[in-house]
Amino acid sequence: MDQTTYFIDRKKKLEEEIKRVEKKLSSMPEETLVYHKQIKNDKTYVTFFKQSFINGERIRTLLPKKKNMREAKLLAQKMYLSRALNDKKNELKCIDFYLKHRKNENYSDMFRTESPYRELLVVQNSIANEWEYAPYEKSTDHPEHLIHPAPKGEMVRSKSEADIAQSLFSHNIPYRYEEIHDIYGSRIATDFTILNPRTNEIILWEHFGRCDDPGYQSTVDYKMYRYIRAGYLPGRTMIITYEDSKHPFVFLDAEEIVQKYFL
């Protein structure tokens, strides 16, 4: 997923969120909440008022805390939702402007292996180049699940993995997809095996993408137990990322991690 696709998805989610907030606000009181703050004897006292306008005249009604706290809470929630609505509408306006004027330039194509420009652009690191394209043992499990195109011409198993591959490729970071490693006595196909261009050290990156699937937890436990027993420490010598249906992993997440660990 590139940034334009991300913002198209974000625009759709914002439009749905705006409808939900507007619906909630439509059932709330017309009045607004204001407060007065007073300091006495080094203590701060806050008094809440319900405010409305009648024929252009401002009317304020005191809301005693003990008797009217429920009404004050409702008006505070209304204020919160109103501000959230304004923020979401502003973000949507900015995204509309971006999508209207953004023109994608596929400059990363110049790094593809078949591009005549690649050898002129790639930093000449013979160790990295030889390592990335040398033959390696790759997983052959369930080839029918390889349905998402990645930038080096290979197919990967999920959109999130395609985003990771795209981010690595765009920054000219050498990687291997689903290379099989002997991890604590088990043959494990790691999602991404990466040669850190800064240190020439190998970093493994596993992405667990179905964390809300109860049947998937055994896969996570199986792999993580062996990685840790083999000495791979998440956040140090290994990268672990997660997602579920409510918390999707997007291209900007991949970019943030690549920037942190490799650039």
Please name the CATH architecture of the largest domain.
3-Layer(aba) Sandwich
* Class inferred from helices and paired strands: alpha+beta
**What is the strand tally?**
9
Q: What best-fitting shape do the alpha-carbon axes yield?
A: elongated
What is the chain-wise order of helices and strands?
HEEEHHHEEHEEEHEH
Question: How much helix is in the residues?
Answer: 40-55%
Strand order of the largest sheet: 6-7-8-9
Textual characterization of the structure:
- The structure is a single chain.
- This protein has 263 residues and is α+β, with helices and mostly antiparallel strands.
- It has helices at residues 3-26, 65-101, 118-121, 126-133, 159-170, 217-229, 251-262, and strands at residues 32-40, 43-54, 57-63, 148-149, 155-156, 175-183, 186-195, 202-208, 238-242.
- The protein folds into two domains: 3-101, no CATH class; 114-262, Trna Endonuclease, Chain: A, domain 1 (3-Layer(aba) Sandwich), CATH 3.40.1350.
- Strands 6-7-8-9 form a four-stranded mixed beta sheet. The protein has a three-stranded antiparallel beta sheet with strand order 1-2-3, with helices on one face.
Provide tags for this entry.
4-stranded mixed beta sheet; 24% strand; Trna Endonuclease, Chain: A, domain 1; single chain; alpha+beta; 3-stranded antiparallel beta sheet
Produce a short descriptive summary.
The chain is built from seven helices and nine strands.
Set down the secondary structure blueprint.
Layout: H1 3-26, E1 32-40, E2 43-54, E3 57-63, H2 65-101, H3 118-121, H4 126-133, E4 148-149, E5 155-156, H5 159-170, E6 175-183, E7 186-195, E8 202-208, H6 217-229, E9 238-242, H7 251-262
Parallel strand pairs: 8-9
Antiparallel strand pairs: 1-2, 2-3, 4-5, 6-7, 7-8
Helix pairs in contact: 1-2, 5-7
